[in-house]
Amino acid sequence: MDDSSLIWDDGALVTIDQRGLPHEVRELRLGTVDAVIDAIRVLAIRGAPAIGIAGAFGVVIATAAHTVDGVVDEDRVQADADRIAAARPTAVNLAWAVQRVRTKLAEGADAVLAETLDMLAEDGRVNRAAATHAADLVQRLCPDRPLRVLTHCNTGRLATSAFGTAIGALRVLSERGAIENVLVDETRPLLQGARLTTWELAEAGIPHRLTIDSAAAWAMATGQVDCVLVGADRVTVNGDVANKIGTYALALAARHHGIPFIVVAPESTRDPNMATGRDIVVEERAAAEVIGFGGVATAPDGTEVFNPAFDVTPGDLVTAVVTELGVVHSAAGDSASTPGDPRPGKVIADIARGLYQRGWMPGTAGNISVRTGETAVITGSGLSKGELTEHDMVTVLVADSTPTAGSRKPSAETTIHTAAYRTTSAQAVVHIHPPFATALATRVGASDAVTTLRITDYELIKGLGGTEPAVIDIPVFPNWADVPRIGADIERYLAEHPAAPPILFITGHGITAWGDNISQARDRAECLEALCELVSRTGRLNAFGARDETLEIGLI
Fold first, then answer.
1. Is 545 domain-assigned?
2. In this model, does residue 554 exceed pLDDT 60?
3. What residues contact 410, with CB distance under 8 A and at least 6 apart?
4. Which residues are annotated binding-site positions?
5. What's 45's domain CATH number?
6. According to the model, what pLDDT value does residue 339 have?
7. Which of 330, 354, 375 is the last residue of a domain?
8. Which residue in 197, 273, 244 sits closest to 90, CA to CA?
9. In the annotation, is 233 catalytic?
């Protein structure tokens, strides 16, 4: 096997049989729907993201089996998909993934396979983004020291398809030289921590110690734990977290000892249709898992057993839930947030709705982003800004604008945002189409070159972030049909003019403003629109000369 725990090979899903680890690394080749369902139920494949993707491949297998002469028998595939989705009830990823590929059935077997392969590729990017956000948060909460981190169950590439979530964060921290030691709960009754997590940490060269589950609280009490990192199988709207049994007890102990308790999971683990953890169906497993191990009985015959596979941790015990979008839930408020805003997607959606109501982001026009380290969260393309939710965001790399997370396409103007991030200290960017500023930009801009508009003698200039209180030179960029060309123009200009104000016009295409946070970026955009309205009502244009001249507006 390569770094991915799931491989599609000639009509079959190939994976590691996790039951054999750590003593035996053996492959499973799953070519039927029943084989996929059985592998999920017996925990040969386990981990919320992994069983989701495996379930999607199960639908691929079902579609191929029920396609004759290019025609899919959708009823039979849907019946198989229902069986797959019901294989394990607690992790939301399984039903989510099955539903996602179901939407492609009408397009045929090739479309179902293509969607599943996209999901597989996306999972690795999503996990790395979430892990990086979590590592950033851990280092802010526990700065300036090598870290002793406690983790529970298994959240690495075995539980996902690649890299891992909580273990992914440990990998990132280890790459930064920030790990002293990882304390691994054995995770009774099936010992996923002992069998799987220690195997993955050893493989990655991360120092670790194994402990019994019941020693975790004492390790915290005796100062051996700086932070707890766990994964999740489902996160409800209010931030309650379903995860491997024993997680709730860890959260209680961490709260008592003042230790950050951080959940790392993909957005697909969040369930927008489940309000609280009270509604989660917690799977109970066979008594045999508890009364014996390795074929040896550990309890008298006839002993009754309570064997829940999961528990539900209340959201108010969770320091933060971190996904590929950053911190999406925080019991501690801003103290546990990513740089800038604690829930960038939610804050972006809230501000976008306000700007939409003012008529400055009409229809699907305009976009907003927040920087989150090496990535930025930006509004998805083609969406009404009056109806945005935090789930309508896309995470992109600042370095090259490539999407790393989110099922939607990023905004067409993404390169404008990343140009500002690469050349300035901006932490948030707002691009809107308010009427007075857009009209003025159209009036003074050129079609094929950057011009400069100088505005003088207005009090509002002070709110634009420039260096002079009574005069400001604002660049006006041509509106190329090739939007990345606009971004390239902006990046070149800002690199050549480091003292340029944090605002700009695009001819006939609105304004862009940025700042240290999303509120400051919005405020600057508001000031510029108000200033443009004043100019339109009270000012004068001193020049409409050659396009390389500075056009100046002042009071009459």
1. no
2. no
3. 378, 380, 381, 394, 396, 401, 403
4. 46-48, 88, 192, 243-244
5. 1.20.120.420
6. 42
7. 330
8. 244
9. yes
pLDDT, one tens digit per residue, over 508-524 is: 999 999 998 898 999 99
State how far Cα 494 lies from the chain centre: 29
Strands (E), 155-309: 179-185, 208-211, 227-230, 234-235, 241-244, 261-264, 292-293, 296-297
Range of the domain at 517: 344-538
DSSP reduced 3-state for 446: coil
Which one of 226, 233, 473, 489 is the catalytic residue?
233
Q: Is residue 338 part of a domain?
A: no
Domain boundary among 302, 330, 358: 330
Compute and round to an integer the Cα radius of gyration of the chain.
27
**In terms of Cα–Cα distance, which of 405, 425, 422, 429 is closest to 131?**
405
User: C-alpha distances in angstroms, 133 versus 91, 172, 187, 485?
Assistant: 22, 10, 25, 30
Query: Whose structure tokens read 């809230």?
Result: 350
For 239, other C-beta atoms within 10 Å of its C-beta total 22
Report the C-alpha gap between 515 and 482 in whole angstroms.
26
Neighbours of 144 (CB within 10 A): 5
Instruction: Give the pLDDT mean for 293-301.
Output: 87
Contacts of 14 (CB under 8 A, 6+ apart): 1, 6, 7, 8, 27, 28, 29, 30
Query: Cβ(248)–Cβ(281) under 8 Å?
Result: no
Q: What percent of the chain has pLDDT over 70?
A: 93
Q: How many domains does the chain have?
A: 3
180-206 pLDDT per residue, tens: 999 999 999 989 999 999 999 999 999
Q: Report whether 168 contacts 323 (CB < 8 A).
A: no
Q: Tell me, what CATH number does 240's domain have?
A: 3.40.50.10470
Residues with Cβ within 8 Å of residue 49, at least 6 apart in sequence = 93, 123, 127, 159, 160, 161, 165, 266, 268, 269
Rounded Cα distance between 325 and 360, Å, is 25
Average pLDDT, the chain: 88
Residue numbers belonging to the annotated binding site for substrate? 46-48, 88, 192, 243-244
Q: Is the pLDDT of residue 549 over 50?
A: no
Sheet order of strands, 241-244 included: 234-235, 241-244, 310-313
User: What residue type is 229 in one-letter code?
Assistant: L
